[in-house]
Amino acid sequence: MADLCIVTCGKKKIWDKNPNTGPTEAKNVYIGPLSKKGIKYAEKFYPDTWMILSAKHGFLDPKDIIPQNYDSSFNIKNSKTISLEELKIQIQNENLDEYERIIVLGGKY
Questions:
Q1: What is residue 67's three-state secondary structure?
Q2: 59: which strand partners?
Q3: Nearest-angstrom CA–CA distance, 12 and 18
Q4: Alpha-carbon gap, residue 72 to 10, rounded angstroms
Q5: Residues with Cβ < 8 Å from 1, sequence gap 6 or more?
Q6: Could you read off the pLDDT tens digit of each residue along the chain, which spans 109 residues?
Q7: Residue 80: which H helix or E strand, with range?
Q8: Total number of domains in the chain
Q9: In what order do the strands lie in the sheet with 58-60?
Q10: CA 18, 8, 97, 1: dihedral to nearest 10 degrees?
């Protein structure tokens, strides 16, 4: 199978800029500089095989709809952060473990 590119989510979201924005495709939700660059890179080099890793929703297809703003972080464990078990289930359900290589674009932790 081909490569998979994973772009990490960011804190700044479309609702921070436009609070009245309704449900939005994942690829348009994350508007911070690092997220925007990662998404642009993924769209150019992996147009059909990229996803966003959200601290709340887990692995998102770029066209998945995010209903509203949220504030979750992998750095701060709370009830809003997706669990490792939930991520494992998503990996199995989406066959994400079948890719030959996974490229992860993220920030500094």
A1: coil
A2: 53
A3: 11
A4: 9
A5: 98, 99, 100
A6: 699 999 999 889 999 999 999 999 999 999 999 999 999 999 999 999 999 999 999 999 999 999 999 888 877 766 688 999 999 999 999 999 999 999 999 876 5
A7: none
A8: 1
A9: 58-60, 50-54, 3-8, 101-105
A10: 80
Distances in Å between the Cα of 37 and the Cα atoms of 16, 17, 19, 32, 105 are: 18, 18, 23, 9, 9
- Domain coverage including residue 14: 3-105
Q: Which residue in 50, 53, 94 sits closest to 72, CA to CA? A: 53
Q: What is the structure's pLDDT at 74?
A: 77
Does the pTM surpass 0.85? The reply is yes
82: DSSP letter = P
Decide if 27 contacts 37 (C-beta within 8 A): no
Q: What residues have CB less than 8 Å from 49, skipping those under 6 apart?
A: 2, 3, 4, 5, 99
